[in-house]
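Changelog note: in this version the structure field was regenerated for every chain. One regenerated record is shown below for reference.
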Amino acid sequence: MAAFSVATDVGLNKCLFFYPKTFKVIRKITTSCLRCNIQPQPQARQASQQLVGVVGLEIHAQIHSNTKLFSGSAVKFSAPPNSVVSLFDASLPGTLPVLNQRCVEAAVMTGLALNCRINNKSLFDRKHYFYADLPSGYQITQQRCPIAVDGKLTYNVFGGKKKNVFQKSVNIKQIQLEQDSGKSLHDDVRGQTLIDLNRAGVGLMELVMEPDMSCGEEAAAAVRELQLILQALGTCQANMSEGQLRVDANVSVHRAGEALGVRTEVKNINSVRYLARAIDYEIQRQIDVLQSGGTVHNETRAYDSKTGETVPMRDKEGLQDYRFMPEPNLPPLMVYEDEASLPSGADASQAVLVRPIREQLPELPAVRRDRLVQTYGILPEHSCTLVNEDGLVEYFESVLQATRKEPRAVIGWVTNDLLGLLKLQDMSVSQSPVGPPALAQLLQLQETGGISSSVARQVFQEMWKSPHKSAQQIVQEQDLGIVSDAQDLQRICQEVMDSHPDEVLAVRSGNKKVLNRLMGLVQRATKGRSDPLRVREILEEKTS
């Protein structure tokens, strides 16, 4: 095609009619371009004139702690309404906040893992606004001087036909401690709103990411990487379905080299998949508005997962005055490097020390992926799959320890066969009916020539259905062992050749590819119980 003409439906329809194969490729490229704003290159340097997306994120991560940020109330996700509420949580007059040391340590650990600079002195502020589920009328947060600043999150994005791994990064402006609000429960039947204050006062880390991303796919990958880091640290369980990780996306579009456009904020997105869809929809919506001569308004929007669209919530044209002021009931939060830097007479057990926390940092996901690639020689995309699933690395390494199979042979079983069935039945790795020892026994049986590769997968399916049975037991009960008798294998091969003379003639005429068909017929005759290498030897000998 002389020109890359896919900008309109007409162009696409013409391409489909005249170039059906080319259409599939172009459609794929165009979809990718719309998603990540990567402009096709055949028509020169017009990329600078194209509108591209700009995405920044604000993420609220619920700190994994037994008690709330400023009170001793328990943190329980499914507790009965208003059952874990202290006097301070309900904002009764005269109650005072008492800072939870565990929450501070969690914020420091998270900041260190994200390459942030930890501020030795940070401050608490009051942010005033009215919500029915915010009984005090203000939120205690860290607006002026947060606990951690200037970090960076590195994440992986898959792309290209071969699903190669591309590394990207996003700058983290700050991490601040703040308290959560309660929850409003709307009763449409009775026409009333009820307030549950169980969540009021729960400790949050707000992570503010700079607008360094360009599409939903990148934002989703960054959030997924953050999830893995938080879970590895133990500072946040990061279960989005339970509200432990909530994402607000700031989205705008502009032309490269020009100032950033007017942004909209898509609030409270509660899944990685919806995050990608919401951002991509919002980018395309803003592009459509501008190209039709309209104006993008500075507003807050929500994502409707049923329609796949963002919908207006409220406008932000008038700058809201939160009347920030220093929190009078909390002194500056001091964090020290180590015991040597503590003031004279200070109790080390009551202080937050950076060095011990740094030394306790676990193996982070990026380091773990690199270790898996270097240690076992697996592909980077396989290491990503292993690390992305909780408990899958441990499963993989347990299987390796119990079998002599090469890691590259085991990885397919773990990431395809095992993980495929787990996903199909919505199960976690810990719930797998086939444990690492059982899978190792199956692979060892295949390695020693007891069963063929096709039979091994058949046995695996049976083990999944009957976890109390071993691989050896299933093989014996169903007579799935490899055909080891040479005379029987010779006879079966000869029978297949006698019933398919045309294929035999083709092989003898030099068409060696047909030999694979004969091998498949022998495998079918033996129900997959024959050794492919031995079958090929016999067939080559008989057709020579």
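Spot check on this record: The first strand starts at residue 51 and ends at 62. The radius of gyration is 30 Å.
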